[in-house]
Amino acid sequence: MPFHVEGLVAIIVFYLAILLVGIWAAWKTKNIGSSGDRSEAIIVGGRDIGLLVGGFTMTATWVGGGYINGTAEVVYVPGYGLAWAQAPIGYSLSLILGGLFFAKPMRSKGYVTMLDPFQQMYGKRMGGLLFIPALMGEMFWAAAIFSALGATISVIIDININISVIVSALIATMYTVVGGLYSVAYTDVVQLFCIFLGLWISVPFAMLHPAVEDIGRTAVKKVHQEPWLGNIKSLDVYTWIDNFLLLMLGGIPWQAYFQRVLSSSSAMYAQVLSFLAAFGCLVMALPAILIGAIGASTNWNQTEYGPTEPWRRQEADMILPIVLQYLCPVYISFFGLGAVSAAVMSSADSSILSASSMFARNIYQLSFRQNASDKEIVWVMRITVFVFGASATAMALLAKSVYGLWYLSSDLVYIIIFPQLLCVLFIKGTNTYGAITGYLFGLFLRITGGEPYLYLQPLIMYPGCYIDESGIYVQRFPFKTLAMLTSFLTNIAVSYLAKYLFESGTLPPKLDFLDAVVAKYSKEHMDKTTLVKNDNIILNELAPVNPRHSLTLNSTFTNKDAFSDIDSSPEAPNAKDN
């Protein structure tokens, strides 16, 4: 394949435009947060992101390279088709559920990151544990889409994959370091516009190519391959349900989502943004679905691609750039490539910023350096943006199973973080004992269920388990949802059991080694008290109350049961009920 100078110029123009927008956004908002809360301005944009920019940035966070390429791929692959394209509906419902049930309580309590309520309720130890799957999800997701971008660019303009990945990562990291959420949000507006325009311009040209059959006919009738509408076999129903629930419910507990929710100017705006993004995800999936259908309707013998179909060459995951390359005019394919590149960066920058935000606030500041200045937190965030960006780039270049690692980590977000989030927001009385036990049970059931992408054999053979062509056992049973429900119910059961054992006197207070029930012996809760009184941390970040000297610990924290003894103790003689 010849080197395309025009394609390289088009990519440079797209990248420079996005970089300039990111730098402009950082310059425009450089004075926001300058009075001492610059770190919060970087993480949640000063909580003044409007509906237009907020709707674009939340949509662009989901509509990334994996979303666009993956949707086209699954529609194209014989035996799957549109019936298995679960991401558009799954993520849209995820955003709707997030808006209905999660956005309002998170935004109204003034949290700064997704991990804040966990550290408030369960303490810094549990916050650190939950940071692990959250970080894995963000990092492996960024690495996977960087890897996809390198392969996409190499198909169309035939340049070295490593160079394209490194340059893309550098640009995304650069404007994220400079402007934080503001730069990410404003570049998302440009990127989403590029995705929409670039793909919709490409679709008519590809559809009118002489080698392409009528997609209405190939949807229901076998022409060059199986109909692209696809079907769900009876043996695969439970697998389909398991994957769909993972997308719908597991798509909620991501820092990238809650970063947009918490940046909204009000709780109502946070809900509206979620609904707008749900609609945006559906609309943005349409051209990807059509491109997948076009690929399934093409007689590749009549194209320069050759007589062998992409899926036979193990190139089904590249169907979108292949359609752009071989079924569209050169100038149109380059425009479409710019759209895909924009899609990748719109997700990668969000993941990198999300990971650095959680580390700087929940690990560095709240766990180790509670007296750290705002300037120190800002520099920690900037350094970790570079570190996490470099790590994601290295994984994209070196790892053999980046997508497999991302599948596993996204499963952990669904199985571990989602039930924990349900408990911390909606179930009264859960504590650290239940949270840790639920965490371990969910992790154990997921790991022992195996992972074909990583060639990880299962230790537990659920009903319907079978051996695939590569000799790996594959589960048909919805064991991921089983693991999630087990984690959720274990958290509740162990929390109430621990509460009963300590409060009834069955177990002595000295055995409360996690300081989760008998608060008067709790050093951990005293750490939380210090946090709230710290001048460097705004009170409403951790609790929905006003700063008053008469405030009691009982009214400050959501987990009131754990503090009932402290409020009546001699150490708080001036406390009174609100």
From TrEMBL:
<feature type="transmembrane region" description="Helical">
    <location>
        <begin position="269"/>
        <end position="298"/>
    </location>
</feature>
<keyword id="KW-0325">Glycoprotein</keyword>
<feature type="transmembrane region" description="Helical">
    <location>
        <begin position="189"/>
        <end position="208"/>
    </location>
</feature>
<dbReference type="GO" id="GO:0005307">
    <property type="term" value="F:choline:sodium symporter activity"/>
</dbReference>
<feature type="transmembrane region" description="Helical">
    <location>
        <begin position="439"/>
        <end position="462"/>
    </location>
</feature>
<feature type="transmembrane region" description="Helical">
    <location>
        <begin position="129"/>
        <end position="157"/>
    </location>
</feature>
<keyword id="KW-0769">Symport</keyword>
<dbReference type="GO" id="GO:0043204">
    <property type="term" value="C:perikaryon"/>
</dbReference>
<dbReference type="GO" id="GO:0030425">
    <property type="term" value="C:dendrite"/>
</dbReference>
<keyword id="KW-0406">Ion transport</keyword>
<feature type="transmembrane region" description="Helical">
    <location>
        <begin position="405"/>
        <end position="427"/>
    </location>
</feature>
<feature type="transmembrane region" description="Helical">
    <location>
        <begin position="6"/>
        <end position="27"/>
    </location>
</feature>
<feature type="transmembrane region" description="Helical">
    <location>
        <begin position="377"/>
        <end position="399"/>
    </location>
</feature>
<feature type="transmembrane region" description="Helical">
    <location>
        <begin position="163"/>
        <end position="182"/>
    </location>
</feature>
<feature type="transmembrane region" description="Helical">
    <location>
        <begin position="318"/>
        <end position="344"/>
    </location>
</feature>
<dbReference type="InterPro" id="IPR001734">
    <property type="entry name" value="Na/solute_symporter"/>
</dbReference>
<dbReference type="Pfam" id="PF00474">
    <property type="entry name" value="SSF"/>
</dbReference>
<comment type="similarity">
    <text>Belongs to the sodium:solute symporter (SSF) (TC 2.A.21) family.</text>
</comment>
<dbReference type="GO" id="GO:0008292">
    <property type="term" value="P:acetylcholine biosynthetic process"/>
</dbReference>
<dbReference type="InterPro" id="IPR038377">
    <property type="entry name" value="Na/Glc_symporter_sf"/>
</dbReference>
<keyword id="KW-0813">Transport</keyword>
<keyword id="KW-0915">Sodium</keyword>
<protein>
    <recommendedName>
        <fullName>High affinity choline transporter 1</fullName>
    </recommendedName>
</protein>
<keyword id="KW-1133">Transmembrane helix</keyword>
<feature type="transmembrane region" description="Helical">
    <location>
        <begin position="48"/>
        <end position="68"/>
    </location>
</feature>
<keyword id="KW-0530">Neurotransmitter biosynthesis</keyword>
<comment type="subunit">
    <text>Homooligomerizes at cell surface. Interacts with SEC14L1; may regulate SLC5A7.</text>
</comment>
<keyword id="KW-0472">Membrane</keyword>
<dbReference type="GO" id="GO:0007274">
    <property type="term" value="P:neuromuscular synaptic transmission"/>
</dbReference>
<comment type="function">
    <text>High-affinity Na(+)-coupled choline transmembrane symporter. Functions as an electrogenic, voltage-dependent transporter with variable charge/choline stoichiometry. Choline uptake and choline-induced current is also Cl(-)-dependent where Cl(-) is likely a regulatory ion rather than cotransported ion. Plays a critical role in acetylcholine (ACh) synthesis by taking up the substrate choline from the synaptic cleft into the presynaptic nerve terminals after neurotransmitter release.</text>
</comment>
<dbReference type="GO" id="GO:0042734">
    <property type="term" value="C:presynaptic membrane"/>
</dbReference>
<feature type="transmembrane region" description="Helical">
    <location>
        <begin position="237"/>
        <end position="257"/>
    </location>
</feature>
<feature type="transmembrane region" description="Helical">
    <location>
        <begin position="80"/>
        <end position="103"/>
    </location>
</feature>
<dbReference type="InterPro" id="IPR052244">
    <property type="entry name" value="Choline_transporter"/>
</dbReference>
<dbReference type="GO" id="GO:0030424">
    <property type="term" value="C:axon"/>
</dbReference>
<dbReference type="GO" id="GO:0007271">
    <property type="term" value="P:synaptic transmission, cholinergic"/>
</dbReference>
<keyword id="KW-0812">Transmembrane</keyword>
<keyword id="KW-0739">Sodium transport</keyword>
